Amino acid sequence: MIRQISVLVENEVGTLSEVTDVLAKENINIKAFSVFDTQYFGILRLIVDRPDDAERTLKENGFGYKVGNVVAIELENVPGALNGVLKLLAAEGFFVNYMYSMVLNGEEAPLMVIHLNDEEKAEQFLKEKGVVVV
Prior knowledge:
This protein is α+β, with helices and mostly antiparallel strands. 31% of the residues lie in helices and 38% in strands. It is built from four helices and seven strands. The longest helix is centred in the N-terminal third of the chain and has 11 residues, at 15-25. The chain is elongated.
């Protein structure tokens, strides 16, 4: 599993860059991100290289955040690869709350970051089914 930091930001001009600015000043590298927004606020989901330092930095700068776990899997770079994994998860009763992709330098296949109803069980299940869990 991977630690993910979710930061609550107002849905106004410049609020995302306020978060990325404080992280950049601490040389914290953002590996993956996703933004979900509503009319008044957004949730910035981050995977960073130094999550403990990112938490400290966000707290010191007054940002509201939450830390949780997600599962990252490597997909084969073929049509239907994501569909196959989603069918496996659904057949076993796992609920996907949300997901987003992440691509690492030099990798051909995308990594999918998935938040599930039970990350620990899902991670073990996927490994047993031969899915590459990062």
